[in-house]
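Batch job 17 of 40 flagged for manual review because the log was empty.
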Amino acid sequence: MCIDYRALNAVTKVPNYPMKDTQELIFTAGMAQWLSCLDLLKGYYQIKMHDENRVLTTFSTHNGVYQWKVMPFGLSGASGTFQKIMNNVLRSHSSYAQAYIDDIIVYSKTWDEHLIHLKNVLQELENAGFSVKLRKCTFAAKELQFLGHKIGGGKHAPDEEKIAAIKRLERPKTKKDVRSVLDLMGFYRSYILNYAEFATPLTELTKGKNQEM
């Protein structure tokens, strides 16, 4: 369930908490020989709201009026808050485990190390009151998909499904279409030689008020 919290977000002071550099994370984890990816069960819902703040999340339905006891989707500071909490939980394991919001990657050079690292991280999550969604986790793999990339064994590459989606793109007809193309291509800009040179003409097409081209 996602509530429209635009009015609340407009008057909310959001702390400027930095998110992880995904390129650095992909490169670091991709150098490992053993990888595990953990997915937290309903990540945001594992963060409890302070009692005094619950009233701010009040919403109405045909069944009555409710307040969230856990952190809902739609709050402007939710992702930064979650990232800060996960960084704190994994701080003592940061040399072999990192989180990007609710996706956790554990990476190791050897099999024996990986078993220890994985045990440490799972124990830390349990101590902090977090649960993982087993069917969405990948354990002890040589290669796996993480944040839209295939990583492992000293390599990293774009997700093959994303590349297939790019190949299926039709010729953009509106500025909105062009922006969508730029967003998709820009995600993999590190793999495209002279990306800025190719993207500049497309970026120019998005300027101006007229949405048609």
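Reviewer: the log was empty due to a logging misconfiguration, but the result itself is present. The mean pLDDT is 90. Unflagging and moving on to job 18.
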